[in-house]
Amino acid sequence: MNNLLISENLKEGLGHKLRSPLNAIIGFTGTLLMKLAGPLTSEQERQLRMVQTSAHDLLRTINEITEESRPEEAVIPPFVEAGCRQRRATRILAVDDSPVNLYLIKSTLEPMGYLVDTAHDVTEALASATNNMPDLIISDVNMQRGSGFDFIETLKHDRSLKSVPFAFITSTYWNADYRTKGLALGATAWILRPIEPELLIDEIETCLKSKKED
């Protein structure tokens, strides 16, 4: 019985501990394949594709062990070079207590023409949003100083910020109950990490489109 309890307790934190570094591996591999950091040789591209495929294989194994999965299994997208997708300047506020996650978001979005502001906690995020109104907020859920749930509840009670589209992004909360809670609080999207840069951009464009339709 004790061994079973230990196994279950370990499994609870396993998803987060393994998906977080995988988010960086998959994310930065994707930005390199999109040539956001510069051109690649054919051999570099071939090797990065191998890393990308292996990382997704590992992610599927982690999901099997933790008995969690995306609503639809993510497909590795064909890479699109930055010049093919650049858009007008749109301000995104990214909120996360992980410097690596924030750097990955900036490295993905800024070469595509987005303006990216960053904040490490809810207090910083509220100050940033008040001083520079974003077109979209993308926030982690579990942070050391205030949760994403607390953040969105505060925003929805602020007359000047309540209409800003809000997307959660998380490597921890894959359970559908958390997604339901986030959407009920007013989030436009619930994004699961790790995620390919191309798919993250698609999610962001969908959120921005929803604002226009409103």
Walk me through the structure:
With 214 residues, the protein is α/β, with parallel strands linked by helices. The protein has two domains: 65 residues; 131 residues, Response regulator (Rossmann fold, 3-Layer(aba) Sandwich). The chain is 53% helix and 11% strand. The chain is built from seven helices and five strands, in the order H-H-E-H-E-H-E-H-E-H-E-H. The protein has a five-stranded parallel β-sheet, sandwiched between helices. Helix 1 runs parallel beside helix 3. The longest helix has 32 residues. The radius of gyration is 18 Å and the shape is globular. The N terminus is likely disordered.
Set out the fold topology.
Blueprint lengths: L1 H32 L8 H25 L24 E5 L3 H11 L5 E5 L2 H10 L4 E4 L8 H9 L9 E5 L5 H9 L4 E4 L4 H17 L1
Parallel strand pairs: 1-2, 1-3, 3-4, 4-5
Helix pairs in contact: 1-2, 1-3
Features:
7 helices, globular, alpha/beta, 2 domains, 214 residues, single chain, disordered N terminus, Rossmann fold, five-stranded parallel sheet
Quick structural overview:
The protein is an alpha/beta fold. The protein has two domains: 2-66; 83-213, Response regulator (Rossmann fold, 3-Layer(aba) Sandwich), CATH 3.40.50.2300.
Uncertain runs with pLDDT below 50, 5 residues or more? 1-6
3D shape: globular
Strand content: 5-15%
Name the helix and strand elements from N-terminus to C-terminus, one letter apiece.
Answer: HHEHEHEHEHEH
Helicity, as a percent range: 40-55%
Rg calculated over all Cα atoms: 18 Å
CATH fold name of the largest domain, please?
Answer: Rossmann fold
Structural class: alpha/beta
* Name of the CATH homologous superfamily of the largest domain: Response regulator
Total number of domains = 2
Distance between the termini: 53 Å
